[in-house]
Amino acid sequence: MGASKLDTHYSVRIQTMKNISKFQKKILGWYQAAKRDLPWRQTKDPYKILVSEIMLQQTQVDTVIPYYHRWLKRFPDFEKLAAAEEAEVLKHWQGLGYYRRAKMLHRNAQQVCAQHAGKLPQDAQTLLSLPGIGRYTAGAVGSIAFGLKVPLLDGNVIRILTRIFAISKNVADKNTLERLWKISKNILPNKNVGDFNQALMELGATVCFPRSPNCANCPVSDLCEGHLSGKAESYPVKSPAQKITKMNEHAFIFRDKENRLLVKKQKTGERWADLWTLPHFENLNEGLSNFKVKKNDLKKLRTDKHGFTRYQITLNTFTLGEPLKKIVKKSDYVWMTKKELSRSTFPAVYQKIIDGVMQHEH
Asked: What pLDDT digit, counting tens, does each position of 258-294 carry?
């Protein structure tokens, strides 16, 4: 690995072969001594590693661990996952959010079983052809499960590399990202690539924080331009944060004479496609007119706040003190028993509301 392979656009302290090797050794040595004992680090099973990587996208480690264990108990391999109904897959994912990940993982298992005899392909290009596997996931699974010399780039690694190399360009820019991919590839060691990639991510998660990085405990601070210049927190350079839009919505707890709850399955293209929700509306009067209910007949039950992409939503939930007499014609609403509700998948905020209602009945 020659220095010429690195992006010489930047003046950095690990341009030489000697310092690249020093960087690799320090990172790997630190990882062996300081890495967290996480369940997916105790296996080389490609399926289990893939599940962990998909779950960890946009979700904290502590949140993922119990889901990971429950998932593998029910879906221990590609075959079991491929054979499951999507509704059950979504139910086991409930609470992790970003449900598209679960759908893609399900489709991935079906394709692996149909085209690769239930075994994950061992080359990065074929991995990229599978549902739910992008450039990062192919790098993570390829290097960790198969030892392939392939890079990865996630938020943690971007933060580390921009600080090490003092990259002052916006990381949202395509050209900047390509430079980072090039750097991440050219600093890979010839051996222990999976550990090296995990070490970079671990360093970002436990030491090289976005704010107040713990440079005193960083194994490569002496090679970091950001730290040595006293400007570590200036990196990475990002686009201005997207403005959050605040919204109010209104949900209803409606029951029929048999004490069943009224719910609706969201369609493709809607906010929570294929998940169930309570009846909900941005405009309270619109909701009332749909069900021929008077505002004075409603009782405010609770208020919940939740986020969705760039929206911060205040959800006001109302209940009716008597069975609902009428719903709109040709509606997609259905009545569900308590048992049916427990088998169906709701977004976290609606599940919390329903659980609260059910507990109140006892």
From this structure: 999 999 999 888 888 899 999 999 999 888 888 888 8
DSSP 213-264: --GGG-TTGGG-HHHHTT-GGG-SB-PPPPPPEEEEEEEEE-B-TT-PEEEE
Mean pLDDT of 183-198: 96
pLDDT band at 239 (very low <50, low <70, confident <90, very high): confident
Residue pLDDT, tens place only, 295-333: 898 999 999 999 877 889 999 999 998 888 877 655 789
| Within a domain: 51 | yes
Total tally of structural domains belonging to the chain: 2
**Number of C-alpha atoms within 13 angstroms, CB side, residue 15?**
11
Nearest of 331, 351, 335 to residue 261 by alpha carbon: 335
> Would residue 129 count as lying in a domain?
yes
Could you tell me if 252 and 338 lie in one domain? yes
CATH number at residue 62: 1.10.340.30
- Both 195 and 76 in a single domain? yes
Q: Would you say 255 and 325 are in contact if contact means Cβ atoms under 8 Å apart?
A: no
- Do 299 and 231 touch, CB atoms closer than 8 A? no
Residues 348 and 256 occupy one common structural domain? yes
Tell me: do 34 and 140 sit in the same domain: yes
H or E stretch covering 302: strand 298-308
Task: Using alpha carbons, list the distances in angstroms from residue 53 to 101, 136, 209, 285, 289.
Answer: 10, 9, 20, 44, 46
Q: What is this structure's pTM? A: 0.85
Range of the domain at 135: 3-154+176-204
**Is 286 among the residues known to form the active site?**
no
H or E element: which one contains 162?
helix 155-164
Nearest in space to 75 (alpha carbons), one of 100, 112, 130, 116 = 112
Helical (H) or strand (E) element with 318? strand 311-320
Cα 4 to Cα 14, 43, 178, 183: the distances in Å are 11, 36, 17, 11
Tens of pLDDT along 11-53?
456 566 678 899 999 999 999 999 999 999 999 999 999 999 9
